[in-house]
Amino acid sequence: MVRPKLRKPEATILLLTAWLVANHGPAAGVALTAATADPRIATMKSSPRGPFKAIRWFCNDGAVLKPTPNACDSHGGGLQHGAWSRATVDLRAAGHRIANIYADLDIDALLDEERPDVALAALAIERFLILSDDGWILRRARLYRGAIQAEDERAGAERLLLRLAQGDNWVINRYLGWRTLGVLLPVAGEHTSFQSVRHLASSIAAENGDFVALRNRIHAEPSPETAQAVRNFATHYQAEDLKASLRRLAGAIDELYDDSPIPALAALESSLAQQQLTAPRFFELSQQWGQASSAGRRFEV
User: Fold this and answer.
1) What does the pLDDT read at residue 196?
2) By C-alpha distance, which of 143, 182, 148 is closest to 162?
């Protein structure tokens, strides 16, 4: 499954805002505001482990085990990722759906909720915050190796989108929401490009131990800003071979986020028009955003 690539997360504002307003009204952001204002969120943003307390194996039979090799082999298999901290558990119990793990997401349970559309909107909002706010609650946890397994997260997000694509409920009746999730969720996208970025980052870290923390960030949650972090790292070294490898890595990361959002907006407009869903103001704003000559003007739109 290939999703539109975005150079800057702000490009999804139109999609996310239109979906939330259309389906939930102004109240859509109330719970989010309460969560982001909570001091526990600020603590997660600055904590090396973010919303997690430890790395654990989550086995298919329900067992949760310490991160030893092949721990789930006798439990029907399983996945390894971060285990929620007490603060995360408490916030989720209060209705704030944060620190979502897609690798073993219970899709059936999510879609059986009374308002699955609200649950999915919460997933989209968190992903937007992660992309637009330098990782949000994962800001430092991106360096917490093992907390987020990129391949497993992408596979889980893809399963969710494909499940939503079954039938007409989302791809026809709620296309805007489905499209927004497709842009925001960490779906697999360009497998070859992503794998090449990970491989090159690992190769550099094997030669230079100082690069290990940045490699972990690239493996867990690469973003457009990561390319600049790689370039900043390169300024501290003189070896030409290393600098050349770092330039290649930064360029490869750039390529992952090099597409303009305008084609995606145009496709969305066409789809909405075919469904006879009238949203002239949204279409007008999408055109203004595409013609904006500066980031400030885009913000105004």
Assistant:
1) 75
2) 182
